[in-house]
Design brief:
Layout: H1 3-6, E1 8-10, E2 15-17, H2 20-36, H3 43-53, H4 55-75, E3 81-92, E4 121-133, H5 140-206, H6 212-247, H7 279-299, E5 305-317, E6 336-346, H8 351-420, H9 426-461, H10 465-471
Antiparallel strand pairs: 1-2, 3-4, 4-5, 5-6
Helix pairs in contact: 3-5, 4-5, 5-6, 5-7, 5-9, 7-8, 8-9, 9-10
Amino acid sequence: MSTSRRCQFDPGRGRYRFPIILVLSQFLPAAVALSAQQDPITLPQAVEQAAGKYPAIAESLERVSAAAAGIDLARTAYLPRADFLGQINRATRNSVFGLLMPQAVLPSISGPVLGTDSITNVWGSAAGLLVSWEPFDFGLRKANVEAAQSSRARAESGVSVTRLQVSSAAADSFLTLLASQQTVIAARAGVNRARVLHQVTDGLAQSGLRPGADAARTRAEVAIAETQLIQAEQAVEVARAALAGLLGIPAAQVVVQPGPLLGAPAAEVPSAGALSDHPLALQQNSTVREAQAQERALQRTYFPRFFLQGSTYARGSGARMDGTTGGALAGLGPSAANWGIGLTVTFSALDLFSLRAREQAQVHQEQAAAAQYQRILQDLDGQLQQAQARLMGARRVAEHTPIVLEAARAAEQQATARYQSGLGNIVEAADAERLVTQAEIDDSLAKLSVWRALLGVAAAQGDLQPFLRLAGR
């Protein structure tokens, strides 16, 4: 579209008039992109957002809710049980005298044997209610409730473990993104230095003061620096996508605010207490307690079961004692009612052998969980010592990188001056520029390495809050 059709000159006002549609078409996409971009977030904000949105934490919370429902289920054993029954059937009335072992295939038939064999069939009906309650159980129901409560405690500790893992991953991704961005800054400066050196060398080569090979070498140095910049920019996008996956937002909306993270931290992460308070240790300790509760429940299983029962019921049948039958509808409704109460005692004496085997297996499960708890404590102690060693080394490196950077810049200036004056060669100048670029990258990453080491110490201690307070200042 030509300019004359997109805008018109207003003679009265002496200026061009731009249609509103044209203005909106030019500025609306930029406004939409700006509004879609999220405000810069700090490291503590990123950790909080990841802990609130990542699905793994919601999954752990749902497991806690399921375990809490298991406690309610175990407590229902204290309530009486009421079973209702209603039945209508049509069958023959022949009854057989004799023994029938307990089984679940043949229907039971009540009444005397009439001495006849007939295929005459009649209606039968029944309705009843049985209420059964266990007045005492030698602590079995209490043990089952405690086992369910220990399962909920283990699920709750699992939430803390998941939250620590997600928070640590978010903080590490945040620091990785910052490190990648600092690498891009240093790589871009290296590209600019390589281009300046190439311009100087190319001018000297064209004037005959330097051989053409020097210009070719500097062109290669420019290409190498640009390749390094591309790789650094790729690392930024990969780190941005990783952080966006934890935050639950598109990668294009991830904008980080460094805060104090580009400087050296002035303080150490304070000790978080004993390693037994670490979420991993607490989770395994809950597993040990759950195994102990299940063992106590098994120990209270080999006892008699007492049930106080009350029943009321009614029966109806079209069959009569003299062998005759009633009318066509006889037996469809209950005609005789009864009630009864009683105390029932059950005891499975031969279950002793299977219960002993189950208890022995549960004891070994408990011992295995206890051994795993000790292993976790030992592993956590080793991880903490390693994290503290990394922190000490990172601080020492951060103290030396400024010295290396200052010396590299001085060497680069001297090498460039020597080359321009004809006292040096292109190899010295190119190597000096590479050394400056690498020194800038190392210096910018050294401070972030200290912060990453502090994060490792806090994660090994099981509490990120002291680290987040340092990062949020």
